[in-house]
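fold-stage: in
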Amino acid sequence: MMIGLGLEGYDPDSQHDAAVAFHVRVVEDEQRISRHQHRKGQLILALHGAITCEVDNALWMVPPQYAVWIPGQLAHSNKATPSARLCFLFIEPGAVTLPTRCCALKISPLVRELILTLAERSLDPLQPATLRLVDVLFDELPRQPQEQLQLPVSPHPKIRLMSEMMAEAPAAWQTLHQWAQHFAMSERNLARLVVSETGLSFRRWRHQLQLIVALQGLISGQSVQQVAQALGYDSTTAFITMFKKGLGQTPARYIASLATTSR
């Protein structure tokens, strides 16, 4: 079943099926779902474009072939890129053992196809074949590896502004000095603020944001050189070093590994 990002009034807690999935297509006027919560846990799988999920003190930016897991009763908001295609999977509490905290999961081709097939059968959730499909899905879901695609954030207006502007134009905002001038405060005080609000130094926090933005660009088809330039790196080598330190592989090998597991 294909529905809009706002789920067209669907209440995931109105039913007690172990799992129910929907295809979601994003249109220009509904790119964001405001803060909400529900009893069921929710897995948001990105098929095309990207999805951003925000919970208290953390922001997940999930590109294609990844999903964000949101445990039940956890307040969150979602924002998708224009024309994104997603799949929402709602899971009844206790139906399967999944992380108790919000996280990003690298989704295998098998699990991806299981979720997509379940979405196609959403009108017949109690059919024996559909129930067997859910059993297999629940066997495989706990095996999906977690990826460090979260950016620590906070309600502090300065941290909020920094994260939004650096994600939108990472090459334009490279240094702590730039931000200190923008806020008319000392670099030392701003550095302390970033650590107290995010738990990371400004350099590590900026690198984590760059890593997430880089992965989005690479998976969307940009070259390593294009991504490095967009992030403001003077050399491709410096960007590759940052990427490898964060994800354990060079960008080319990382993207190649995704290609070998996708259809």
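fold-stage: in (second)
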Amino acid sequence: MITLHKSAHRGQADHGWLKSFHSFSFADYHDPARMGWGNLRVINEDRIAPGTGFGTHGHRDMEIVSYVLEGELAHRDSIGNGEAIRPGEVQRMTAGTGVRHSEFNHAPDATTHFLQIWLLPSRAGLAPGYEQRQFAAEDKRGRLRLVAAPEGSADVGDAVTLHADARLWVGLFDGDERAELALPPARKAYVFLARGTLNVNGHVLQAGDALALDRETALTLGQGDAAEVLVFDLAP
């Protein structure tokens, strides 16, 4: 089963300094039919105005992945991390028993455009943690690059480790570039197109569109136009 989620049907919030699109219920946007997919709970597409950001706030028992599309995102947290996240980098923060952090766009004249992703952890009460890695564009060109995988899994390699039963691939597609990915039929998958256009299993996606897949066995991606896509393999 494949369900198309159009960009225009996402929740929206405009706080002036922050413009956000919510793929699933979040904050003041609530849709009982869109509470997540498998153990994927949040995909927020956020744009932070220059010189503004999220003040210090707390999280618990969530795996939080940040993926920057444009600009920089300055991260600082209560467990001693202070990093700038740039395009091509993947950051994972394990909120666990509790962590406080801030996220800020220090640029005087550029918007930070990024994806905030929440995954339900495999268990509650984990120790807070942090990891950040860079993935070169050439490693994602015309293919799906594994960028996050469960800790201890055989395929984790140099991907960011997740304390969640989930994997995340990222790919860049243009023109005739094409890729396929086998899907475990007992699991769920989610495809989110961050920008451009892309044909996925016969569905033409525009930026912000997504496909929710249940008991499918394969993905075929191609006919892209400046496409950047995220693909999730998820616990059912």
